[in-house]
Recover the amino acids of this structure.
């Protein structure tokens, strides 16, 4: 079985695939013994209320998968947290822009070819 190897700078495709930032996903076995507090559906965790704290601490911009008819409280809790943080008017110091700025998809997305 052969493994695809990135031909881009510093193995960008390989590095990015191990540093997810777009969506938080909990595939079966991805986080070792970490329990899915919702339910498993085709090998991926449909988040439950017990997953809310874990999701709140993640750096991903979105999360995948919720089922509002199965467990709406998970999304309600995260929405309430977001609303409170927005109302508190946190400063830019609370946001780690450097983390996102150094991601390969950001660094190599400039149309003029210059690095940030």
């Amino acid at each position: 079985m052969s493994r695809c190897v990135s031909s881009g700078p510093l193995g960008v495709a390989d590095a990015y695939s191990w540093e997810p930032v777009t969506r938080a996903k909990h595939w079966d076995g991805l986080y070792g013994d970490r329990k899915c507090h919702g339910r498993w559906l085709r090998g991926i965790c449909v988040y439950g209320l017990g997953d809310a704290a874990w999701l709140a601490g993640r750096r991903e911009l979105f999360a995948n998968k919720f089922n509002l008819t199965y467990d709406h409280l998970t999304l309600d809790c995260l929405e309430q947290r977001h609303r409170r943080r927005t109302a508190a008017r946190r400063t830019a110091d609370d946001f780690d822009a450097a983390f996102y700025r150094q991601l390969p998809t950001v660094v190599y997305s400039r149309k003029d070819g210059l690095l940030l």
Observations:
- The helical segments are 12-18, 52-56, 72-87, 97-101, 104-107.
- Residues 20-90 form one domain.
- Residues 1-10 have pLDDT under 50 and may be disordered.
